[in-house]
Amino acid sequence: MPLLFLRKPQTWLLLLLLVPKILFAQGVIEIREGLTKIALKNKLEYYVDLTGGESFPYVLKHFKGIPIQNSYPIFRDSPYAHWLQFRVRSAALKNQKISLVTKGIDSLQVYVTQGDSMVYKFGPNGSHTPIFLREKVSPLLFTTLELKPSVTYTAWVRIRNVHYSLAASPFDLYGYETAGRYLLDKTLLYSVYIGSTCLILLFSLILIYFFKEKIYWYYMGCVCCALLIMFIYNDFIYLFCNRLPSLILNKNALGILSATVPVLYLLFAEQYLDIDLRLTSPTFVISRAIFAFQYLAMAVLIAWGKPLFDFRILFYLTMASLSVIQLVYLYQKIKTVQARLFLFATIPVTVTVLLETFSGLHQIPVQSIHDNYYMTTLTELLLLTGGIVYRFKENQKEKFRLENEILTIQSTTKKEITSLIADKLHNHVSSDLVVSKSKFTMLQKELSGDNHTEDWRFAFERIDSAYNAVRDLSHQLGKSANSVSLINMLLARYHGEARVEIDHQGLDPDNPINNKSEVMIFSIISEIITNAIKHARCTSINVQLTYAKPELTVIVEDNGIGFDVTKALGTGYGLADITRKVEHTLHGKISIESNSGGTVAIVKIRLK
Question: What range does the domain containing 495 cover?
Answer without folding.
Answer: 485-608
